[in-house]
Design brief:
With 176 residues, this protein is of the alpha+beta class. The chain contains seven helices and seven strands, in the order ααβββββαααββαα. The chain has two domains: 97 residues, no CATH class; 53 residues, no CATH class. Helices cover 28% and strands 12% of the residues. The strands form three sheets. Strands 1-2-3 form a three-stranded antiparallel β-sheet, covered by helices on one side.
């Protein structure tokens, strides 16, 4: 018994329709442009931190995860409703917001905010997260490097001229 290539009973042989020809996901260039057009977070490095369309702070390293600083690239006009996977139709949204937005097209900022994770991070907490994720904290005009464990124990003095970070500092921790 032989089967014809391209048989419609096989998922692989199913006919392609027009929707299958459109790219479903944003390419690297579209993602880069999408990130760039999102609102920067004041006092934070713009390549690391942005605000999504609902005003939530998100971290670039946390793409496609489920935490409060995580985000996804969203089709403003949903793909299922004919939206293209191009930079002009792209926005970053906190993952939770994007999942609840789903394929809704006409949705305003206040509705998006209603879906947002309620956790708000302090500058100190964002510094600690950035230190853990990137190994340093970079703020416009100010950056530092992490101290090694040996430096913290006083067993080694770095020759690196960049000042070591004071985050998280023992002074700040003792005041809490």
């Amino acid at each position: 018994m032989s089967s014809e290539a391209g048989s419609s009973s096989s998922p692989r042989g199913a006919r392609k329709n027009k929707e299958d020809e459109r790219p479903r996901f944003f390419d690297t260039k579209a993602k880069s442009m999408c990130w760039s057009k999102a609102e920067p977070v004041p006092g934070r490095h713009p390549e690391r931190w942005r605000k999504d369309a609902a005003g939530n702070i998100v971290c670039k390293r946390f793409c496609n995860c489920h935490g409060c600083l995580c985000f996804e690239y969203d089709h403003i006009i949903p793909f299922s409703k004919g939206g293209e996977s191009v930079a002009e139709n792209c926005q970053i949204l906190q993952t939770r917001v994007n999942r609840l937005k789903s394929d809704k097209q006409e949705i305003d900022t206040s509705q998006l905010k209603g879906y947002s994770c309620d956790v708000k991070f302090t500058d100190r907490e964002l510094d600690i997260i950035e230190m853990a994720v990137y190994g340093d904290v970079i703020r416009p005009g100010n950056q530092c490097r992490c101290r090694t464990v040996a430096e913290m124990l006083g067993q080694y003095k770095s020759k690196d001229r960049m000042t070591a970070c004071k985050l998280p500092s023992n002074e700040e921790a003792s005041q809490l």
